[in-house]
Amino acid sequence: MSEPPRLTPVADALEPLLAGSKPLDQARIAIADALGLIAAEPARTSGPVPPLAVALRDGIAVASADIVGATPYAPVILTDMPPAVRSGATLPPATDAVIPAAAAIPAGRLVEIGQAAYPGEQVATAGSDLAGDIQILGRGDLVTPELRLALATAGMTDIAVLRASFAMTPGGDPVVRDWLAARLRALGLTETGEPEAGLIASFGESAGAFANRAPMPVARGLALRPGDNAGTAMASDGRPVILLPERFDGAIAAFYALILPVVARLTARRVNTHTLPLGAKIASTIGCTDVALLHVVDGRYEPLIVGAVTLQALLRADAVALIPPESEGAAAGTPLAAIPIGNPLMPEPSS
């Protein structure tokens, strides 16, 4: 009787992909087009934001010292009508507060001001939003709507981004393909054609076909639970190829065990982990990397399922742990490092 084929350890399948993967080229693009992409270099403010004091509301700009004690019954008399300002407008010289326009009542050639103000009332002072020469985002940061707002408000028009892209060969379950594409886009990658892609994902029968024509050695059949029919390969130019199971459980396992580390290497980031004690013991299979879905309860990881992925567990999960093949499991209270599902990658520490 022939022996069953030996499964390749996940680390062995991943090693050549990581060794051959280098951070991608960068390009400067308009900030308006950078949403969801990965910053290739830090961006800093060139001066305080706002550069001068600005109004926080529509009204009139006044010098607070000129209207001390003013009330509707004892108005302060000014010789000139205070200038009108709109929200966000720079304050005129010699003014330091904004009050409602209705507080100023013309009285012949004079103006009655029926409301006092304190210095800085309804005013954003210079640098109150962003100080001068501070870093807004770093290399490896994903450009969020909030970061884009800050960059544009600081007067920047373009930034350098990494051109991270992926392609999927035909085949596989459309639902699983859509899930993977959405996951990769959320990590800052854009979908493109196979010749241009920095990462190639191949499903089901097309994965087998790709394995047969792959110019570089292929690891097919991994010691990964679920996902033992996943695999890895490399295109002729060294680009990483992930061979994915058709069913969602194996594809999810391959995403966390294989795709995340490769994307991290390509985009100058690292896989994010957060360590918490286990709320209950887990058992794992020696010789396999077991995927564990975890739910955070009172500062502990409560195991939902180990060595398998179900939709019920996935919907409750907050984190994913990869239990190494040398482990038989862990007792309750043991610290466990796991990948937060909502924030699986983070920038590399600044050197």
UniProtKB/TrEMBL annotation:
Domain MoeA N-terminal and linker: 9-155
GO biological process: Mo-molybdopterin cofactor biosynthetic process
An MF annotation (GO) of this entry: molybdopterin molybdotransferase activity
EC supergroup of this enzyme: transferase
GO CC term, one of those recorded: cytosol
Family matches, as Pfam families: MoeA_N
Keywords: Magnesium, Metal-binding, Molybdenum, Molybdenum cofactor biosynthesis, Transferase
Gene3D superfamilies: Molybdopterin biosynthesis moea protein, domain 2, Molybdopterin biosynthesis moea protein, domain 3
EC assignment: 2.10.1.1
Pathways per UniProt: Cofactor biosynthesis; molybdopterin biosynthesis
Domain of life assignment: Bacteria
Cofactor(s), by name: Mg(2+)
Family indicated by similarity: Belongs to the MoeA family.
PANTHER family per record: GEPHYRIN (PTHR10192:SF5), MOLYBDOPTERIN BIOSYNTHESIS PROTEIN (PTHR10192)
Task of the protein: Catalyzes the insertion of molybdate into adenylated molybdopterin with the concomitant release of AMP.
Record's protein name: Molybdopterin molybdenumtransferase
Organism: Phreatobacter stygius
